[in-house]
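Entry for the shared binder. Reason: the reviewer on the internal report wants the predicted structure included alongside the sequence.
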Amino acid sequence: MERPFVLVVEDEISVRDALAKFLDLHGFEVRVADTADAAFQVLAERRPDAAVIDLRLPQGSGRDVVISIPPPTPVIIFSAVPDESERLEQLRPNTRLVQKPFSLTLLAETLKKMLEQASRSGRTVK
């Protein structure tokens, strides 16, 4: 059984590396990006089964990355700006906010639940 492919978009290296390592240890295949452009490059190569995206990036907007991923692919927004995230949750199906600072365990559990829901709704997750 293949591991679900997750795109992690975060500019802060310590957060990005910890998150990628934690998700890898919990059964996910992880690709990381530190800018919106880098995320779009990954998306052009391969559609993720899920994504974890910070909205505030130094180059480009995480919001644009979120909107570019077609539903029902699960997207977790992790941000310290809940107002921005809430608007995206309303605009795009299967989007959730995990507020910074966040629990890695909570984030991984939320991601797994969202992948299960997406799978039940017709999107096959590997």
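Summary line for the report: Strands lie at 5-9, 29-33, 50-53, 75-79, 95-99.
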